[in-house]
Automatic annotation (TrEMBL):
One of its GO terms (molecular function) is ferric iron binding. Keywords: Cytoplasm. Coiled coil: none annotated. Residues 242-335 form the FdhE C-terminal domain. PANTHER family: PROTEIN FDHE (PTHR37689:SF1). NCBIfam families: FdhE (TIGR01562). InterPro entries: FdhE-like_sf, FdhE_C, FdhE_central, FdhE_N, Formate_DH_accessory. This is Formate dehydrogenase accessory protein FdhE. Residues 19-198 form the FdhE N-terminal domain. Pfam families: FdhE_C (PF24860), FdhE_central (PF24859), FdhE_N (PF04216). Gene3D superfamilies: FdhE-like domain. It comes from Rugamonas apoptosis. It comes from the Bacteria.
Amino acid sequence: MVQRLLAPGEIEALDHTAIPRLLLPQPRGLFRARAARLRRLANNDIKGIPVGATLRGYLLLMAALVDAQAAVTLALPSDTSALAAAINLPGHAAIAQALSHNMPPLPVSGARPRAWRGVFDNLLAQMGTLANSQPQLSSVLDELRALSDAELDGCADAVLAQFGDGINPLHAPFVAAALQVVWTLQASLLDARHVQPLVTGALCPVCGSHPVASVIRIGGQSQGYRYLHCGICASEWHMVRVKCSSCEQNAHVAYQSLEDADGGTAPPSDAINKANDPSRVARAETCDDCHSYRKIFNQEHDYEVEPLADDLASLMLDVLVGEAGYARASGNPLLWFSAP
């Protein structure tokens, strides 16, 4: 069934108290959908996000890593109580205390769940089959297995704090992938009705991490609303449009997009509400107050947008916006650079 897109006047007339403020992840489908999207992006099948040959191999490698995330997730118990125990979900009292103080119930700044190390080992085992045909990957996996406990914990600290200095960019995506599995599974077991917004809307209310991008959703009560997508736990929380997702100002927000395949510019304003416009699938939301940007992906123009995958594939947009003088507001857990 095709969802009918709402006109601006209809959106304004909706009961705003019914807006789903928090969308919790569904990990058993999320990782499979993300891997499929990465492969479509790598094959240059997404018209609004052109991918060059240089990036294609990396996207395929990350698709394999996300496949491993899906396999590890499916191997864990499906029963809620058993899963909560397997991934060390905090107890009701700890969650309630955090929520009573408007703190994230699953903070990335707290003690890491013990389960993450087992997930990490299982991810490496899943990737081992692919390494047989990729000597470079085999070398990286050997390095990861050889890390001491202190080195691995240091890498995890850097990933969760988004510190690029001193982190091996070849190791970080694999560590991040293990952390994503644990936090995404934990987030999926929460009750969204009880999670409170944080003092700042720029951080995830579930884990306190930064969003990797934002997305305009369609369908149901989420129709036409913008959500920030957490790079660690994959939760999404509502933020009004035309508002900087970094400094939360709205006076100097603008949108930048790539030129179309024929070398033209973005479509005229009379095409703004037309669906399936490739130039509006991926844009950068720039702010002249804080001089930062974060990408925004529009499900109205591509039903299958996946914020983390699409952000990873649209590096061309990062380059162009960076050249215009804007700094990226936060990173992507699956891509790390050894230097600014």
